[in-house]
Write a structure and sequence with these properties.
This protein has about 210 residues and is of the alpha/beta class. It is built from eight helices and seven strands. Helix 1 links the parallel strand 1 and strand 2. The longest helix has 29 residues. It is elongated and about 55 Å long. The C terminus is likely disordered.
Amino acid sequence: MLKAMAKIGYIYKANHYDSFEADKEWMLKFGCVQVIEEGTDHEVMRPQWKQLMYTLDRGDVLVVSKFSNAVRGVRELSACLEMCRIKVVRLISIQDRIDTKNELFKDTTAADVLAMVGSLPEEAAALRRSSLHVMQFQQNIMKPAKTTKSLSRAEREKTIVDMYNSGYTIDDIMWVTHYSSRSTIFRILDKYNVELNRGRMKGPRRKKGTGEAE
């Protein structure tokens, strides 16, 4: 028995995203059986997006508001496109006016697609900065009488540890805590025995000149 095709919408509810209601209405009118709304408190891990990627089946249709709203960079975009290719999933981006089946947005050109890819890192970073700004208030990182720069050393170090353990990138941590040196961030993480889990920086740090972990 053939599986029925499902149309699924996804929107990350970014702060100040003015097209949220219009995009959701577009998805519903298009026939999406479900519109998944990811909250800003899950900006780092995107659990609903990851679950959606796993759940999509052959022949389904995935509708997103905008690629920079759904993925956090070109690498994630590439992974999404590869998954859709393998599962034969039709992918539609409303604001980017892109339809991989080429039925909608027939006036979209290759130049438009390349422009989208080129601007994706900057747009995704701006989205992340907006979420970080909200996080600063939620976690009392920024206060009227006490900015991040004026926090005590212990408070700034605790902020670094908390953000790293929450999944934020080193660049995000530097932006919030106003440190300009990546080595300083790693030194502080090492001071608090934080296990590194980013790319090549995994596991306990090694002592200089030895092959033994500290």
